[in-house]
């Protein structure tokens, strides 16, 4: 995240709060969106230990109960794979960002290698059933751009020690297009 101007952060897919220790010191509040009440319960100790106040504000990234232009940054990690309508969720993220705000993302998705993509497509149906709706083959940059955002930074790689159909990662930032 860009340092110096980030005060209000919205995190899509807050999970159990693993990102809390990595927030920049400038963050004054985090609004968490997480559909799993079990994850929120597991996050209680991390939330209590956090120097940043955390407020759980919603369950669904596709419908954020937040005002327009109310966040300096949106953080989305390993969540676009499971959101039923990811473009709608990215549109909501763009809506709540201030004009100079950024979406910061880390996601897995569609691999560049044809053979790996074929395996992703073959395994995708099974993965959705056993992985809580997780899609292996979503083209993350296309989803972000289809929602009207412009990718300003993008790093890609295969994660180590994970079978390739599950391992292609996208890490980057995007701003309103």
TrEMBL record:
- Which keywords does this chain's UniProt record carry? Methyltransferase, Transferase
Residue stretches making up the Methyltransferase type domain: 10-104
KW Methyltransferase (keyword) present: yes
The GO annotation for biological process reads: methylation
Mind listing the GO molecular function terms for this protein? Answer: methyltransferase activity
Name of protein: Class I SAM-dependent methyltransferase
**Per the UniProt entry, what species is this protein from, by scientific name?**
Brevibacterium samyangense
């Amino acid at each position: 995240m860009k340092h110096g101007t980030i005060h209000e952060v919205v995190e899509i897919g807050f999970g159990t709060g693993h990102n809390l220790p990595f927030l920049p010191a400038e963050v004054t509040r985090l609004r968490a969106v997480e559909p799993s009440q079990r994850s929120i319960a597991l996050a209680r100790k991390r939330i209590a230990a956090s120097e940043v106040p955390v407020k759980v504000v919603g369950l669904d990234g596709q419908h954020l109960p937040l005002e327009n232009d109310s966040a300096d940054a949106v953080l989305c990690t390993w969540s676009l794979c499971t959101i039923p309508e990811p473009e709608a969720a990215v549109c909501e993220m763009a809506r709540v960002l201030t004009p100079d705000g950024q979406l910061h993302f880390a996601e897995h998705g569609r691999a560049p290698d044809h053979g790996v993509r074929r395996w992703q497509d073959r395994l995708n149906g099974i993965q959705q059933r056993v992985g809580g709706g997780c899609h292996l083959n979503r083209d993350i940059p296309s989803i972000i751009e289809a929602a009207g955002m412009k990718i300003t930074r993008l790093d890609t790689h295969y994660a180590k020690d994970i079978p390739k159909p599950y391992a292609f990662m996208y890490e980057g930032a995007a701003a309103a297009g």
